[in-house]
Amino acid sequence: MNVTIYDVAREANVSMATVSRVVNGNPNVKPATRKKVHEAIERLGYRPNAVARGLASKKTTTVGVIIPDISSIFFAELARGIEDIATMYNYNIILSNSDQNKDKELHLINAMLGKQVDGLVFMGGKITEDHIREFKTSSVPIALAATVDETGETPSVNINYEQAAYEATELLLSHHNERVAFVAGPEDTVINTEKLAGYKRAMKDHGHDDADKWIVQGDYSYDSGIEAFEQLMNMEDKPTAVFVSADEMALGVIHGAQDSGYSVPEDLEVFGFDNTRLATMVRPTLSTVVQPMYDIGAVAMRLLTKFMNKEEVEEQSVILPHRIIERNSTQQK
Q: Do 188 and 125 contact (CB within 8 A), yes or no?
């Protein structure tokens, strides 16, 4: 049977209120009494009931985290940033995998709220009206990480995806590439729309009003990168450079090119997005947009703690800086 606070009180010959004060770190307990209670806890193997404590304090010190794919290096780094800050502020996290499926996302939001979490960090793809409705009716604060709510009503942490995509495309164009292709992600998310807009703006600034013909779509996976390369090489005007909207897809493009006898970057320059660990594992190493995934997760969790603890929040839509890093998959000036 589970050991209860009553058992500890009886073992230590003190009141249950005294045991509660010791467990909760209340300083108003004599050292000798505190020592006696701790010894009783150790002998009996007592573990405080977090659910019961949560019901009493109306706080469970638990945060729900919903991410699309825990096996993804991208989301794993975000989750690590969340977990580290949660630990710093004495919160535990409940992590759930949504597979970026809308119905599953909505189910998980309600399941987390049913577990009486104190707050939610949500990472997903397209934020729909159904998501907004759930966020607005939530009894606890919600923060988005690497996810955009077009209404701007939900606290969020991101980078400027449009500007980052512009700078990546601009770099490839500065290498005298007249035909720069773009491998887009799923088209129905704000982030992918912004990346596409950045690519098109850079192309237009360099006199390319026909950029649409060099755009192919993937799903962020390695295999879709290989397929994207095959589509690009079947074009009449084959590109000499390609900007890929995710590192994992960029690896697929590089390996597709190499398997077909192309040399990277001599025959085809490849530029990625995210700067995951994969960028330095591939050969040649991948030039990419540095999106600070760990920082996005950490800042989103810190933002959430402010809302949970009713601290002052100056800006609820946080934009973190990005940067461009050139490695060996692009030509050096």
A: yes
CATH, domain 61-159+293-321, list 1.10.10.60, 3.40.50.2300, 2.60.120.260, 3.10.450.50 = 3.40.50.2300
Distance, in Å, from the CA atom of 306 to the CA atom of 35, rounded to the nearest integer, reads 35
Q: Extract the tokens encoding 278.
A: 């994969």
| Cβ 213 vs Cβ 179: under 8 Å | no
* Residue 109 neighbours by CB distance under 10 Å: 23
- Tell me which residue of 29, 25, 32, 30 sits closest to 48, measured CA to CA: 25
* pLDDT tens, residue by residue, 150-197: 888 999 999 999 999 999 999 999 999 989 999 999 877 899 999 999
0.90 exceeded by the pTM? no
Tell how strand 287-290 and strand 323-325 pair up.
antiparallel
**193/189 Cα distance (integer angstroms):** 6
pLDDT tens-digit map of 22-39: 887 788 889 999 999 999
Fold of 5-48: 434 Repressor (Amino-terminal Domain) (1.10.260)
Identify any residues that bridge with 163 across adjacent strands, giving them in sequence order: none
